[in-house]
Design goal:
Blueprint (H helix, E strand, L loop, with lengths): L6 H10 L7 E4 L10 H17 L4 E2 L1 H4 L6 H12 L5 E5 L5 H13 L3 E5 L4 H5 L2 E5 L5 E5 L8 E6 L3 H15 L3
Parallel strand pairs: 1-2, 1-3, 3-4, 4-7
Antiparallel strand pairs: 5-6
Helix pairs in contact: 1-4, 2-7
Amino acid sequence: MARNETIETEELREIYGFHEKYDVTLACAFEPDVDRGCERRFTFYDSIGKVVERLGKKAFLPHKHADLNWSPEKIVGIINGIVIPTSDLVLAYIGINTTSGGVMLGKAITSGIPVSYMYEDESCLNYLKSLIIIIDEAGRERTVVREPGFRGNVYDLIQFDNDKDGLRKLELSLKKFYNL
């Protein structure tokens, strides 16, 4: 089910020397932000990666696979230019709103990659119902709030009560997505 490489992704792979391929990308924070609870969620993100791998797929987890010593240009180039456009599916954990997670989600939407949203509280969906990506005059993607309604290819909405419940529901969703 792997997406085909484009000339652009092949060129970016050469520029950045990044040749890994991932089936599923997790759109989430990747720098610890103690005040917003991101660091404590890294354990949950790791568990998501294990569920993906248990099904024979490879997961891109930004907090593990993005090197914070890379330049910001390289981080964005690799994640938004290579990893997301060549992924089969993007998982968006929307329990903690972050800029990095929003940018990754926006790239998935503009690239036509199916997205499964994972969340505990249904109120998290309110933000997404008005998410839209625009390209500004300089050619940069920007997220702005506008018209109501989901954008992009929503594969699944996974609401869960606790981490264990979320991982169980994620596994069922991935099995269905990959016909396993």
